[in-house]
Specification:
The complex is a heterodimer of chains A (195) and B (506). Chain A is mainly α and 195 residues long. Chain A has 7 helices and 3 strands, in the order βααααβαβαα. The longest helix of chain A has 26 residues. Chain A is elongated. The longest helix of chain B has 19 residues. Chain B is an alpha+beta fold. In chain B, strands 3-2-1-12-11-10-9-8-7-6 form a 10-stranded antiparallel β-sheet. Chain B has 16 helices and 18 strands. Classes of the chains: A mainly alpha (195), B alpha+beta (506). The interface between A and B is large, with 49 and 86 residues.
Chain lengths: 195, 506
């Protein structure tokens, strides 16, 4: 990402900041209320809430107490005779699937685009604003940093997709890097063509 | 007691539960049964005493405990095992916590599943998670050590039929809400003897500290379970079978589980009756009999003997006294020792249809008859196996059991295909491996042909008599909710709030 020399800093909008502060406080309050009122994560509750109708002849206190954590579905579905175990074929989920390839390809593409546009900007007299690279980095420096970042994101996304297949955290790394590089490329292009 | 996952109780639910429990305790009506003339307090005392008597009666017995657990692909209705685990042990209830000196009670002496890699199971990210077999024993009881009125509250819910008996159901909660490892759930109590016959619930987990919650590490987990007891004598109900099926997301593990998981499994306990009292003559695999791993011969064995004798007579084989016995364990195996053919309960439950068993028995007979004639060193084991199978098919066909060839090949093909998913089910424990040594030559080709509408299923058809270690057969279409009629339920005096006015003082 390259920026014009001596680019002025723009102070933030004070009214907007105050609005954001209020909004963030409300959000925090909502999150706290949700957290406090959320049911405990018991296995029985996860299967469904308790209906009072299931206990029509119970004393009132027992009914109230029994609604604290156990579901009638779990009770009614419990078959006392021995259960059958169906054994269906299991295929290990693919880690390197289409989504994985697309996201990581976008990371590399955005990296190349950012580097090349920035190099073009440097040739036109702009300077690099990334302090790690210095004000006038070479092409090798751009690609050394960019490719190593991409490889790190590739490894981390692979690792998290393998270890935590139930989560989408693996997407965070390629998405963050792609976003950063895309922003850098657009910012550089705006500076180059908006002069 | 830590075997399975559990969970963080949030602040609000803890407070609400504590308040409700306190209110419930304060408002517990002293209701009475008009038939028994007992107040609720007296009934509860009898429940506690009955359970304590039952547990103390276990001292001196040496039952066998079998746990078979599968790790399934989580968050899907499809039943796709990823891996499995197997424990078989002898339980000595007289061994206490102090005696074991291992930080756990140490009730069990393991035949299979001792310390080491056997006590892990692979989950869907390829990693192996630890299992604690002591916890599976706990899943047959409400509380093996502290089930009394000082530790637990019982709250009556309602009367309902279960397993042919009329039961009173109670909600069980620990008096000390902060106590760890205490049971929380429901029990079904037989209405005349007040003995527990079913348990459904879980144990309160050990809280996860800030470091493990934030950074990660082992998270102790408990499973919800459904445990059923068997009436071994009038009014005496002993632990028999527990089932667990736990499908949880990573969020339910303090938001810090590395992945979702799904475990299911069963636990059987049998052989309360002492070996010395068991009837029957000594058998060749006497060590299996001594270890209460062979079923006491009964109707199933008689059926197998009929098949074996029919094969022998039809083929004019000079093999007197061929006898079949059933191994009570879940792993799939069939082998012979002398003239005794041993079939595992797991194999009987896994058979796709009745036509397979005669062919498998015929193969064992052919192995007996060909023994000594075939020389594996000269001809190779594959040739010997092929000869035994061709001989088995000939023996079975002559005895009128010719229609099981395709099903048998299909079974072997399925076992071969699933062998990586359920290695502990396929792996023989006492005999030679069914897959390696004796797969029919055509099994590999059968798989390609497919068999529409059939899935490999470990059924619950053959179960175990907990007292006498006999094989039991589940009746077809068995449904416990239908066994006690509505009229029977209406005759039973229910405990309702209006009983309070007429209840005698306890």
């Amino acid at each position: 990402m390259c920026a014009p020399k001596n680019a002025p800093t723009v102070p933030g909008n004070r009214a907007l900041s105050e609005w954001k502060l209020v909004a963030s406080q409300l959000a925090c309050l909502a999150v706290a209320l949700t957290w406090l009122t959320a049911p405990s994560f018991s296995a029985a509750q996860a299967k469904g809430e308790v209906a009072r109708a299931i206990l029509p002849d119970a004393p009132v206190d027992a009914r109230v107490e029994s609604t604290a954590g156990f579901s009638p579905a779990a009770i009614q579905s419990a078959v006392p005779s021995v259960r059958d175990f169906v054994i269906e074929p299991y295929h290990k989920p693919k880690i390197i699937d289409r989504e994985f390839i697309i996201l990581n390809s976008l990371t590399f593409i955005s990296n190349v685009a950012d580097s090349e546009i920035s190099l073009h900007g440097l040739n036109l007299g702009l300077r690099e604003s990334n302090p790690i690279l210095g004000s006038h980095p070479s092409r090798e420096a751009y690609y050394a940093l960019g490719v190593s970042n991409c490889l790190a994101a590739l490894y981390l996304s692979y690792h998290f997709k393998r270890v935590s297949p139930g989560r989408g955290w693996w997407k965070a790394f390629p998405v963050a890097l792609t976003t950063a590089h895309t922003f850098g490329a657009v910012y550089s292009a705006a500076n180059i063509y908006g002069r | 007691m830590e075997i399975g996952p559990i969970l963080r109780l949030r602040l609000a639910s803890t407070i609400c539960f504590s308040v409700l429990a306190a209110v419930a305790q304060g408002q517990q009506p002293a209701t009475t049964s008009q038939d028994s003339g007992l107040t609720q307090k007296q009934i509860q005392r009898r429940i506690f005493e009955g359970e304590q008597q039952m547990i103390s009666s276990l001292i001196g017995t040496a039952p066998r405990l079998e746990t078979y657990l599968q790790s399934l692909s989580p968050q899907t209705k499809a039943e796709r095992p990823i891996d499995d685990a197997y424990f078989l042990s002898k339980v000595d209830f007289s061994r206490g916590y102090e005696e074991s000196g291992q930080g756990r009670r140490g009730y069990q002496t393991f035949f299979f599943g001792g310390p080491g890699p056997n006590r892990t199971v692979r989950v869907n990210n390829g990693r192996r998670w630890k299992l604690y077999p002591d916890g599976f024993l706990d899943m047959l009881f409400v509380d093996l050590e502290d089930f009394d009125g000082e530790t637990y509250n019982l709250s009556y819910i309602k009367a309902e039929p279960f397993g042919g008996a009329l039961c009173l159901t109670y909600f069980v909660t620990p008096k000390d809400v902060s106590a760890r490892g205490k049971f929380r759930g429901r029990i079904w109590v037989e209405s005349s003897t007040f003995k527990i016959i079913r348990i459904n619930g879980t144990f309160k987990p050990t809280p996860v500290g800030f470091w493990r919650r934030t950074v990660g590490g082992d998270i102790p987990i408990y499973f919800s379970f459904d445990s059923v007891r068997q009436e071994v004598a009038p009014g005496t109900w002993m632990p028999w079978y527990s089932y667990l099926d736990e499908d949880r997301t990573w969020k339910q593990l303090n938001h810090n589980g590395e992945t979702d998981f799904h475990y299911r499994g069963h636990i059987f306990i049998w052989g309360y009756r002492n070996t010395a009292e068991r009837s029957g003559k000594p058998y060749l695999p006497s060590h299996l009999d001594d270890e209460k791993l062979l079923a006491n011969p009964d109707i199933v064995e008689r059926g197998l003997n009929v098949i074996v004798n029919k094969i022998a007579v039809s083929n004019n084989l000079n093999l007197p006294d061929i006898e079949c016995r059933v191994l009570l364990t879940t792993p799939v195996e069939i082998f012979h020792s002398g003239h005794t053919v041993i079939v595992s309960r797991g194999l009987l439950n896994l058979l796709p249809d009745d036509s397979v068993l005669p062919l498998l028995l015929a193969r064992e007979i052919s192995e007996m008859t060909l023994l000594g004639r075939a020389n594996p060193d000269v001809r190779g084991p594959a040739d010997v196996n092929a000869e035994e199978w061709s001989s088995a098919v000939a023996l079975a066909t002559k005895a009128g059991y010719s229609d099981g060839i395709f099903s048998t090949c299909w079974l072997f093909a399925q076992l071969a295909e699933r062998s990586k998913q359920v290695p502990n089910l396929v792996q023989s424990r006492f005999g030679a491996s069914l897959l390696l040594s004796s797969a029919p030559p055509l099994a590999g080709k059968i798989l390609a042909q497919g068999r529409s509408g059939t899935t490999l299923t470990l059924r619950g058809k053959y179960t175990i008599d907990a007292w006498d270690a006999k094989l039991q057969i589940r009746p077809e279409g068995y449904n416990d909710t239908q066994t006690a009629g509505a009229s029977q339920l209406q005759q039973f005096p229910r405990f309702t709030s209006h009983d309070v006015a007429t209840a005698p003082v306890d």
